[in-house]
């Protein structure tokens, strides 16, 4: 079963082909980070223009890498949302054009389902499972009792974890996207600065905007008093707070839901501090912890093909009226 996956929800134009949903035979990602860097974040209009320029090139490169033609592809999976509408539309329209021209089934994929299914490129999923989704726009604990079933048991009430990383990085004058820079700096410092840990007792929800403000205030107060503050200690303290909350809530949810596997998904899953803290927390527990390699954590199309493959087998189809849905919800019970 060959699935062509297409992803254009934000600032990566990506196409990939998977075989039987688990084996990658092509994976092409054209990143636009360099174009957005000087604006300190993703500029939607620039993103759309790059997607238009890159989409055909990226799809052709994927077919060439896999050494297959469109006639051998069984279905086309595409991210329908959530994301930037103008960015999503480029992928959706490319997928529809290919589906029409080659008479192939079209499978709509939720971007976060894609991040979760990146784990299936590493190992077979075992249900029930819990996915910790930590990305640029989402922080969620998702319970899955079977393929295609997504139940959000907790989510952020304000900023996403990646968003908090990027905003804190800006305050520390680091380039976009700030997550990897903070991560690197954190390992050079110590978590000696006292920052809040938003527990939101009794719920699996998250909140990172208060923590972000506390970091900003710490920097401003030090500036006003003319005191020096070690950026590596601030980075380490911020990271310690984020990681503590993410790990504790995940461990608690795993105990309550009695799952067999814990998956980690999204760009912040690339965080070294989070990865090692999760490994330590789950080392003594009877649950399998799965964390994808770094390149599958951030946006790519292999994850869309992986999720699309499962959805295709479940009979999920879209027709040529498929539209991009910027605020698409993941919650599906079936
Ligand atoms: P979403 O998936 O929610 O739509 P997105 O696609 O923009 O958002 P991803 O590509 O999953 O997000 O992840 C990008 C985010 O991951 C950025 O906020 C980036 O700073 C963060 N990130 C990447 N690497 C690291 C790291 N090592 N430590 C912390 N954050 C990181
Ligand atoms: Mg991105
Ligand atoms: Fe993403």
From TrEMBL:
MF (Gene Ontology): tRNA N(6)-L-threonylcarbamoyladenine synthase activity
Instruction: Please state what the protein is called.
Output: tRNA N6-adenosine threonylcarbamoyltransferase
**Where, per UniProt, does this protein localize?**
Cytoplasm
What does the record note about the cofactor?
A: Binds 1 Fe(2+) ion per subunit.
Cofactor(s) named in the record: Fe(2+)
Which coarse location class describes where this protein primarily resides? cytoplasm
Q: Which reaction does it catalyse?
A: L-threonylcarbamoyladenylate + adenosine(37) in tRNA = N(6)-L-threonylcarbamoyladenosine(37) in tRNA + AMP + H(+)
The first-level EC class reads transferase
Instruction: Name the PROSITE patterns on file.
Output: GLYCOPROTEASE
Q: Which InterPro entries match?
A: ATPase_NBD, Gcp-like_dom, KAE1/TsaD, Peptidase_M22_CS, TsaD
Determine if tRNA processing is one of this entry's keywords.
yes
Q: Which UniProt keywords apply?
A: Acyltransferase, Cytoplasm, Iron, Metal-binding, Transferase, tRNA processing
Job of this protein: Required for the formation of a threonylcarbamoyl group on adenosine at position 37 (t(6)A37) in tRNAs that read codons beginning with adenine. Is involved in the transfer of the threonylcarbamoyl moiety of threonylcarbamoyl-AMP (TC-AMP) to the N6 group of A37, together with TsaE and TsaB. TsaD likely plays a direct catalytic role in this reaction.
Amino-acid positions noted as binding Fe cation in the UniProt annotation, renumbered to this chain: 111, 115, 299
**Entry similarity comment:** Belongs to the KAE1 / TsaD family.
Q: What NCBIfam families does the database record attribute to this sequence? A: gcp_kae1, T6A_TsaD_YgjD
Acyltransferase is among the record's keywords: yes
Q: What is its EC number?
A: 2.3.1.234
Q: Where is the Gcp-like domain?
A: 23-305
Q: Tell me which residues bind substrate.
A: 133-137, 166, 179, 183, 271
